[in-house]
Amino acid sequence: MAERSYRILRDRLIMMDIAPGDPINEALLATDLGMGRTPIREALKRLEVDHLVISYPRRGTFATGVDITELAAISEMRQVLEPLAAQRAAENRGGALREELTRTMQAIRQLDPLRDRRQLMEYDLEVHRLIYRAAQNHHLEETLVRLDNLATRIWCMVLDRLPDIHAHISEHGTLIELILD
């Protein structure tokens, strides 16, 4: 239950369903997710480590603010680590995720360019997480997922002003093909 609540809350925070600075009400979330408050508390502890929420004694827990100037620092780290993840995934030829990578590559090639921008961003997250898992290095995966989550959150702040997201995601199809080959 804690893992489920973590994933749901993480994605709500990343996709701006919970806005920066919003208070996090454990009781309302527990009701909304149909679970007790303990899994919510456990999820919030993990989300604080991920820099997606912040807790203040006697004030509560809040969604962290989004600082667009952080994108440069996050991107710097991703530029170093993502090629390593892709290389490791390629060395493993996708490993146990080979079939899932193949399906994802085929789905990318059939993506509708007019698809909703939010759905495209969710797809982008999914593709990155899949490649990180295929690297078969949980330390690398955890680090890259956290960085990608923060970067995607920043991009979601300006989602309506982003250039062609479809073209960006289409490039992932080529990357997956290279990993598989």
How is this structure best summarized?
The chain is mainly alpha-helical and 181 residues long.
What can you see in these coordinates?
By secondary structure, this protein is mostly helical. 67% of the residues lie in helices and 6% in strands. The chain contains 8 helices and 3 strands, in the order H-E-H-H-E-E-H-H-H-H-H. It has helices at 2-14, 26-33, 37-49, 70-91, 98-109, 117-134, 138-157, 165-180; strands at residues 23-24, 53-56, 60-63. The protein has a 3-stranded antiparallel beta sheet with strand order 1-3-2. A hairpin with a 3-residue loop joins strand 2 and strand 3. The protein is globular and about 55 Å long. It starts with a helix and ends with a helix. 23% of the residues are buried.
The backbone outline, from C-alpha atoms, is globular
Structural class: mainly alpha
Q: Which regions contain 5 or more consecutive residues with pLDDT less than 50?
A: none
Largest sheet: 3 strands, antiparallel
Fraction of residues in β-strands:
5-15%
List the strand order in the largest sheet. 1-3-2
CA-based gyration radius: 17 Å
Oligomer: single chain
List its salient traits.
8 helices, 181 residues, three-stranded antiparallel sheet, 67% helix, 6% strand, mainly alpha
